[in-house]
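Q: For a teaching session next week I want to show students how multiple molecules come together into a single three-dimensional assembly. I've collected the sequence lines for a complex. Could you give me the predicted structure tokens for the whole thing so I can convert them for display?
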Amino acid sequence: MFTLFSIEGGVCAPQGFFADGIASGLKPEGQKDLAFIHSDTLCDIRAIFTSNRFRAAPILHFQRNAVERTNFVLINAKNANAMTGEAGIEDIDLILGHAEATFGNLVDPVMSSTGVIGVRLPKEKIMRGMERFDLTRKAPDAAARAIMTTDSRDKQVAFEVRLENGESFRIGAMAKGAGMINPAMATMLCFITTDAAVPADEMHTLLQACAATTFNAISVDGDTSTNDTVMLLSNGKSGLYRREAFVHALERTMHELALAIVADGEGATKCVAFEITGAANHEEAAVAAKALTNSLLVKTALYGEDPNWGRIASTIGASGVTCDPSTLTIAFENVTVYEKGEILFDAEQEEKAAKIMRKKAFSIHCDLGIGDGSFTAYGCDLGHEYVKINADYRT
Amino acid sequence: MFTLFSIEGGVCAPQGFFADGIASGLKPEGQKDLAFIHSDTLCDIRAIFTSNRFRAAPILHFQRNAVERTNFVLINAKNANAMTGEAGIEDIDLILGHAEATFGNLVDPVMSSTGVIGVRLPKEKIMRGMERFDLTRKAPDAAARAIMTTDSRDKQVAFEVRLENGESFRIGAMAKGAGMINPAMATMLCFITTDAAVPADEMHTLLQACAATTFNAISVDGDTSTNDTVMLLSNGKSGLYRREAFVHALERTMHELALAIVADGEGATKCVAFEITGAANHEEAAVAAKALTNSLLVKTALYGEDPNWGRIASTIGASGVTCDPSTLTIAFENVTVYEKGEILFDAEQEEKAAKIMRKKAFSIHCDLGIGDGSFTAYGCDLGHEYVKINADYRT
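A: Of course. Below is the structure for the complete assembly, covering every listed component.
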């Protein structure tokens, strides 16, 4: 048995981790834009990355160097260092070389970036900026703010996992991302620290397993980023590891941050769980659920708070999964509007459904009535603010 | 040899075809909402339909009756008769039975619908309305207006195809659809008439072949309609058929209507041709080109007239096609901004590209530098008007 306690401290909550964020001049008006995470002992590090074929330079750099142990991660916002070719990778070598020269005790330092695509990193600003880092500071809020782009708020969680014998380990994380809606500019980055003694050879598998129902259940629209990254740093300082408890804490950490990203979706006014059950299998359930999160028609109906269930049905029908109108059931929370071929959508039901849609967060349930596959994906609405943010992004 | 002449008359241009549209009370304020196409001799008819698994009742009705010859097509707007089950099909039987009783000389009449999903057809209004049809009228403009939903203008074309010996046949068509952006509510319908003596067994193949580069090059976003339909009616009255000439005219007809639909995309301010070349094969070229038409980030950048080529690159990278940053080239018409790994995007190039983006119609060219596959897809921007139309659709 084990118990999870929500605690303060973000990525600095686990023992031995330090972080801070400063303003290096990448963002205007003295906003923080450059962060580090440092561990005072060497960490195992594993990461999962975007499926985009044009992976950004920081990802290529990480993979090329086959980094497995480090004590330093540098993160900048405002520039993704993507589509910058070999020059972009050389820029990272130069910057991290400067970090090693400045701080002396770094081992295989790692870099991560988010921002506009196709522009070379402003190396000088970053190198001058990092000279002001104090690696003994625990300023998780500053770090979490520094990695934001169009995010409206920082995203952090931390848990203490207490085992039945009273011993405990911790996990902490910060993420950025202004919604599943368009990771291509507003890349999703997540950095997770832990003092649990996670076996290095399990880390990658655990990350992948937990991503499937968390970060991969929110994003995945046509615009998968060049930079998406989830990193796990484990320094083992607690000396403790209990697989079941750690997986639970990791999944919970990633789930909370994933929902925080959806809720902060660019211009979003509501967060919706699309629960698919009764699909032919798990894969088809995921396809249908994700199709709903990505449908422009569904997203604009959410924005309009219009219980237009026909758009939901049509999206499922168009998603390519096995389905049949005579076995499908659609409900807005507990209000069923279509049941196995029968339309239950009178004025009274419509008003009940509309009332649910006026909430900040709610669920839409679709039972395909075919098999046992289920999946829940999380999405948000699309309104005027989204257009404003994205039509004006660079200029 | 043959020559194509653009002519007036839409679906009534070919010999023996009649059409009109009236107001039956489905739309408010006396707007036309019910149309017919009639041929005074029996036509061969073939149609291609949506790939959505939840095909609307009119499509199921057509397929169940295996209609191959008819002289009457009834079309209503404002209600898609989709997700209405067996009852929806019975409604069509009742309505078309009333048409046969009213006009006496109908053979296997056909119905097509567009509008909101999940609401039973207002049968009485439609039956009362159709009693006012005069099957000897040639009022193609009225018919084309009656089938509109969120379209801002009617869409018609007609051609006379003159062979080198002076003989000629005609093809005419009308379509509706407010853009590739969301066929789920604004279904794409197209009705094509011809007096060419097209062999019945070629009609379906020709429709499919021509759709691949026309209607299927514009639509295909997550919201494929339950009702999408392209119908070809051929009465053979000209007694003439020349395959090459007919295919050319059919492709041209469908291409012009497809572009008209994109240009009239809901809230669209510009029409963009995404030309992919150098893909591994034709299929991958189509995947990449269509991904660009469906990317929210690309669409909002078009709206913002921002030559943010990084979003274009990222979308191609995320589309799953074979590609490499070191072989990719991206150009806004003749302004190359990224060439085989090299960023050519200085202030001067940016201003040149931005100038092109301020045009109503332009092309974006991406050479993947991998193979010989090419495809051009047509898209439009996404702006505030789109959100307005779709957030307010039903209410």
